[in-house]
């Protein structure tokens, strides 16, 4: 085996499912337009086979942008809230915060959209708002669980060693909580990709647009195209997070352990 | 030197530490002993300001610690706890380097210090430095814990039942290592323990706590010979207290170095405990043992009658 590290890494990547699922997702995103006309045998006679209101790369980009923006906001809010609730000053609020975000989760997304439209108008904004509301809970739940999982003895030792509160958070608590925090973010983002489709009911451009149009126009071809792409998108991102989680967990090191 | 002056700390309505006044001399080991809930851990945590007292004062070399920022104070003191609390995501090396890193020492000085400390606590740097805590045995983890606490040459080492979670043979060897390290470095140590033998083996001074009150201080031999009350006597073994007293006294205390008559056999060190001497007498079926003082080579004899005589 005289492959260099780069070739080694590439061959390792080729063996990961994220690579294959991601490749299929990209291929369909850019190839759907060419592929769709050949799928007529699947659908009733006379159905329009190619979604034309927007190109699929455009839909995917817009979908990713909406979900990404909402996820960033949700991660920022969820993480800050969890950090606050695990500090001495915020400990009293922990139960309230958990309850609030649990309530947010029980609201159906469509209802949130419907309520948001009068104040935020149609389009991307109410969609992002609903996604943020939905995304916060898993992030905060994961972060609370992760920060709560750091053993008390480790915190005691860190305090005793003379870490500042911020130093303890940054260098001890967050690194140790990272795998569980990441699992929460993974759930949040994956759910968000699925939920974003309903944003198209209030006029946001997402992979839900062909689905909604297909449903209202009785066109199963559009529904299928949107569904397949959004599912592949979610699975690709989910597997991608899986790879990051793998990288975060220290491999059994033996004698030749790597330093971090 | 560390001085407690009428120190009180309550939790809810109960006084966990109640008007404790105590002085620990520089370079000595003071063992805080008592049953669970006697306030000994609370008293220890007041020293590095993990807790602050409700009343009274604690002075470090004459300076009230209430006026020293907790973070700065803690970096000047080592802290070892029973559950060790090594940082699981850091190697042994990085764990030991914790306080030097916080203090911003240059890398070369840290590396040298880490190797020196691992040696000091009996871990081979080339074998253990790059390992992670979960790859070490409980005893090795506690050795790393001690090394981490000593890393920045603390004025004071605080230990909260440091060897409570390891098996007895490992505990003995850790205690021996700690005693040897203390002799070499001269670090002042305050150690909390409910293990009577540990207190006797390590403690130059015992401070006995009961319901937050300091009921007796003194050398192990003095406390065991004259326990302040029934509870103290019971804590140190009740009917078996005499056996613990044998641990607290040396052969040299009871041997006769003027008797010219010589006894055959392997001589016992004058600084071995009387317990060891008694064990040898029983094993060898004899009532006399030859004694040698390793410091000056003088020879003497220990009689069973002297050993048990008070």
UniProtKB/TrEMBL annotation, chain A:
<feature type="domain" description="ABC transmembrane type-1">
    <location>
        <begin position="60"/>
        <end position="241"/>
    </location>
</feature>
<keyword id="KW-0813">Transport</keyword>
<feature type="transmembrane region" description="Helical">
    <location>
        <begin position="106"/>
        <end position="125"/>
    </location>
</feature>
<dbReference type="InterPro" id="IPR035906">
    <property type="entry name" value="MetI-like_sf"/>
</dbReference>
<dbReference type="GO" id="GO:0005886">
    <property type="term" value="C:plasma membrane"/>
</dbReference>
<feature type="transmembrane region" description="Helical">
    <location>
        <begin position="176"/>
        <end position="202"/>
    </location>
</feature>
<keyword id="KW-0472">Membrane</keyword>
<dbReference type="GO" id="GO:0055085">
    <property type="term" value="P:transmembrane transport"/>
</dbReference>
<feature type="transmembrane region" description="Helical">
    <location>
        <begin position="222"/>
        <end position="241"/>
    </location>
</feature>
<dbReference type="InterPro" id="IPR000515">
    <property type="entry name" value="MetI-like"/>
</dbReference>
<keyword id="KW-0812">Transmembrane</keyword>
<keyword id="KW-1133">Transmembrane helix</keyword>
<comment type="similarity">
    <text>Belongs to the binding-protein-dependent transport system permease family.</text>
</comment>
<dbReference type="Pfam" id="PF00528">
    <property type="entry name" value="BPD_transp_1"/>
</dbReference>
<feature type="transmembrane region" description="Helical">
    <location>
        <begin position="18"/>
        <end position="43"/>
    </location>
</feature>
<feature type="transmembrane region" description="Helical">
    <location>
        <begin position="131"/>
        <end position="155"/>
    </location>
</feature>
<feature type="transmembrane region" description="Helical">
    <location>
        <begin position="63"/>
        <end position="85"/>
    </location>
</feature>
<dbReference type="InterPro" id="IPR051204">
    <property type="entry name" value="ABC_transp_perm/SBD"/>
</dbReference>
<protein>
    <submittedName>
        <fullName>Osmoprotectant uptake system permease</fullName>
    </submittedName>
</protein>
UniProtKB/TrEMBL annotation, chain B:
<keyword id="KW-0067">ATP-binding</keyword>
<keyword id="KW-0547">Nucleotide-binding</keyword>
<keyword id="KW-0813">Transport</keyword>
<dbReference type="InterPro" id="IPR003593">
    <property type="entry name" value="AAA+_ATPase"/>
</dbReference>
<dbReference type="Pfam" id="PF00005">
    <property type="entry name" value="ABC_tran"/>
</dbReference>
<dbReference type="InterPro" id="IPR017871">
    <property type="entry name" value="ABC_transporter-like_CS"/>
</dbReference>
<dbReference type="GO" id="GO:0016887">
    <property type="term" value="F:ATP hydrolysis activity"/>
</dbReference>
<feature type="domain" description="ABC transporter">
    <location>
        <begin position="2"/>
        <end position="236"/>
    </location>
</feature>
<dbReference type="GO" id="GO:0005524">
    <property type="term" value="F:ATP binding"/>
</dbReference>
<dbReference type="InterPro" id="IPR027417">
    <property type="entry name" value="P-loop_NTPase"/>
</dbReference>
<dbReference type="InterPro" id="IPR003439">
    <property type="entry name" value="ABC_transporter-like_ATP-bd"/>
</dbReference>
<dbReference type="GO" id="GO:0015697">
    <property type="term" value="P:quaternary ammonium group transport"/>
</dbReference>
<protein>
    <submittedName>
        <fullName>ABC transporter ATP-binding protein</fullName>
    </submittedName>
</protein>
<comment type="similarity">
    <text>Belongs to the ABC transporter superfamily.</text>
</comment>
């Amino acid at each position: 085996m005289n492959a260099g590290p780069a070739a080694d890494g590439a061959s390792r990547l080729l063996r990961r499912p994220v690579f294959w699922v991601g490749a299929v997702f990209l291929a369909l995103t850019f190839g759907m337009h060419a592929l769709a006309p050949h799928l007529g045998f699947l659908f009733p006679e006379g159905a329009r086979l190619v979604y034309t209101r927007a190109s699929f790369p455009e839909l995917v980009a817009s979908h990713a942008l909406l979900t990404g923006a909402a996820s960033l906001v949700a991660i920022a809010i969820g993480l800050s809230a969890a950090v606050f609730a695990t500090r001495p000053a915020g400990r009293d609020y922990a139960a309230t915060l958990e309850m609030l975000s649990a309530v947010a989760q029980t609201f159906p997304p469509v209802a949130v959209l419907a309520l948001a439209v009068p104040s935020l108008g149609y389009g991307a904004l109410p969609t992002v708002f609903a996604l943020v509301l939905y995304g916060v809970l898993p992030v905060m739940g994961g972060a609370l669980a992760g920060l709560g999982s750091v053993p008390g003895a480790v915190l005691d030792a860190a305090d005793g060693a003379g870490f500042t509160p911020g130093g303890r958070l940054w260098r001890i608590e967050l690194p140790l909580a990272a795998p569980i925090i990441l699992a929460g973010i993974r759930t949040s983002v994956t759910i968000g990709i699925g939920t974003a489709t309903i944003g198209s009911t209030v006029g946001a451009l997402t992979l839900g647009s062909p689905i909604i149009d297909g449903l209202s126009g009785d066109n199963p071809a559009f529904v299928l195209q949107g569904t397949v792409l959004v599912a592949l998108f979610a699975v690709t991102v989910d597997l991608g997070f899986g790879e990051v989680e793998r990288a975060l967990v220290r491999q059994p090191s033996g004698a030749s352990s790597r330093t971090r | 030197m560390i001085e407690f002056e009428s120190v009180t700390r309550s939790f809810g309505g109960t006084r966990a530490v109640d008007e404790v006044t105590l002085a620990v001399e520089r370079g000595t080991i003071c063992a805080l002993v008592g049953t669970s809930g006697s306030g000994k851990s609370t008293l220890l945590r007041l020293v590095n300001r993990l807790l602050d007292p409700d009343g009274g004062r604690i002075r470090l070399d004459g300076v009230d610690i209430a006026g020293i920022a907790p973070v700065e104070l803690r970096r000047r003191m080592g802290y070892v706890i029973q559950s060790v609390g090594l940082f699981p995501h850091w190697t042994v090396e990085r764990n030991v380097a914790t306080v030097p890193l916080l203090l911003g020492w240059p890398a070369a000085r840290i590396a040298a210090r880490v190797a020196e400390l691992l040696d000091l606590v009996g871990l081979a740097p080339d074998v253990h430095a790059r390992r992670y805590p979960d790859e070490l045995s409980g005893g090795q983890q506690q050795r790393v814990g001690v090394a981490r606490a000593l890393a920045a040459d603390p004025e004071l080492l605080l230990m909260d039942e440091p060897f409570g979670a390891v098996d007895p043979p490992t505990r003995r060897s850790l205690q021996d290592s700690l005693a040897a390290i203390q002799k070499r470095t001269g670090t002042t140590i305050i150690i909390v323990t409910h293990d009577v033998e540990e207190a006797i083996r390590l403690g130059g001074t015992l401070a006995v706590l009961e319901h937050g009150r300091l009921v007796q201080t003194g050398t192990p031999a003095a406390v065991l010979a004259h326990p302040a009350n029934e509870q103290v006597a019971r804590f140190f073994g009740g009917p078996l207290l005499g056996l613990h007293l044998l641990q607290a006294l040396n052969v040299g205390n009871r041997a006769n170095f003027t008797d010219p008559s010589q006894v055959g056999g392997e001589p016992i060190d004058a600084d071995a405990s009387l317990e060891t001497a008694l064990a040898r007498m029983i094993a060898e079926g004899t009532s006399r043992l030859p004694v040698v003082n390793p410091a000056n080579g003088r020879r003497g004899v220990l009689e069973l009658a002297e050993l048990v005589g008070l």
